[in-house]
Amino acid sequence: MTVRSHAMSIARRQKMCAFTVALLAAAQTWALEPKLQDSVDLDGDGKKEQVTLEPGTEGHFSVRVGSTVYKGRVLTNEAQGFTVVDVDASEPRKELLVHTIGDVDEQHRVVLLRFDGKRLSELGTLQEATEVKGNGIVLEDTWEGFWNRREKYVLDARAQKLTHVRQELLYVGIEGTVRSKSFPLQRTRTDTTPVANVAPGSKVLVVAAATPDKDGPVEWYLLKTSTGLLGWARIQTLVDEVELPFAG
After folding, report:
1. Could you give the CA distance from residue 143 to residue 1 in angstroms, rounded to a whole number?
2. Would you say 130 and 80 are in contact if contact means Cβ atoms under 8 Å apart?
3. Boundary (domain end) residue, out of 165, 186, 208
4. May I ask which residue range the UniProt record assigns to the signal sequence (predicted)?
5. Which of 165, 187, 214 is the C-terminal boundary of a domain?
6. Non-local CB neighbours of 100 within 8 Å, separated by 6+ positions
7. Residue 204 is part of which domain span?
């Protein structure tokens, strides 16, 4: 190996180590409790900005970074504070995640803000940001009665927005027990031909859920019987006929 190639190899390893450290730092930052004020370098210029969040009424809040102010509103939620996250560890900027609390869990929201040195702009508003690890991806978990619905959002660097990555199916992976009544599983969501009739007292695995065409609750679920057959059932059938860990 030549001196030049050896030096390039060392440089590559150092770059990879730096990127790994950045990812770990992002994960550690995410674990912090929300704050109302902090001093942090958001635009990556090596200088820390003073960041302050001021909660308002009826969902209003304002975020000040230096002399720049962003005014936002989320439903009628109360702003609890912000955490600093790193959506994309390959570039020097970091983001603010404003946490707001609604009257019920379904109304909780987080607002992702980015500061470019001159202005604060919104990248997106989600119900939750479960994972922000610095790879340009934000994962969101929302409660669907007996399972967590995981959605993926990717940062569009050109548009400076989070873009939803739609899935045809959503993984569930929850097992339940059929109560005292047998019910059929359909071949497809539009073909009512029975694939199987589940036996009372048998185990069924809720494998996946069909993503709704529009925003709203999931209506159809793909089930696996104890005999290894797959078929579809509506949510009301699961509520009525299967023991699952439903919770409000």
Report:
1. 55
2. no
3. 165
4. 1-31
5. 165
6. 59, 61, 74, 75, 77, 78, 79, 80, 108, 109, 110, 111
7. 169-243
- For the chain, residues with pLDDT lower than 70 are 1-31, 248
How many structural domains is the chain composed of? 2
Residue 28: enclosing H or E segment and its boundaries? Answer: helix 3-30
The pTM assigned to this predicted structure is 0.83
Over residues 48-91, the pLDDT tens digits come to 999 999 999 999 999 999 999 999 999 999 999 999 999 999 99
Do 134 and 88 form a contact (C-beta atoms < 8 A)?
yes
**Does some domain include residue 222?**
yes
Classify residue 39: in a domain, yes or no: yes
186 plus 79 within the same structural domain: no
DSSP character for 106?
G
- Do 173 and 160 fall within a single domain? no
**Per-residue b or e along 55-77, where b marks 16 or more CB atoms closer than 10 Å to that residue's CB:** beeebebbbbbbeeebebebeeb
110 and 187 housed in the same domain: no
Backbone region of residue 117 per phi and psi (left: phi > 0; alpha: psi in -120 to 50; beta: other values): left
- The helix (run of H) or strand (run of E) holding residue 85 is strand 78-85
Instruction: Tell whether 95 and 208 lie within a shared domain.
Output: no
**CA nearest 183: which of 171, 161, 198?**
198
Handedness of CA 228, 229, 235, 238 (dihedral sign): negative
